[in-house]
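Please describe the entry underneath.
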Amino acid sequence: MRTTEPVADWLFAVMAGLATLAGLVLILGERVKSQRGASGDVRRAVFGGLLLLLGMSGLLRKLPTLLGAPSAVVLTCDVLSLAVMLVVVVPLLRKRPRKAARTTSRTNHD
């Protein structure tokens, strides 16, 4: 017995697809802006990359199940989805705010 409705699963897949599309638009927009000679915003490109990876992870997680793929394909996509999530989340968790606190305290004493 399934615990969620198929409509909710399809809505999740659509939202993951939209996040992927938004990330792709942000990345390509910054690339076009930098090719035209304008200074590109690195933060926007990084945010677009995160959106792209998280959206792809969501698609890898739900789409094979919704399309009725064999269990080996579903498990492989689940593992790939987990790997993508770890690539995105671990560097964000490793960022240490203590360095910023040290540099601000040094500037206050100078």
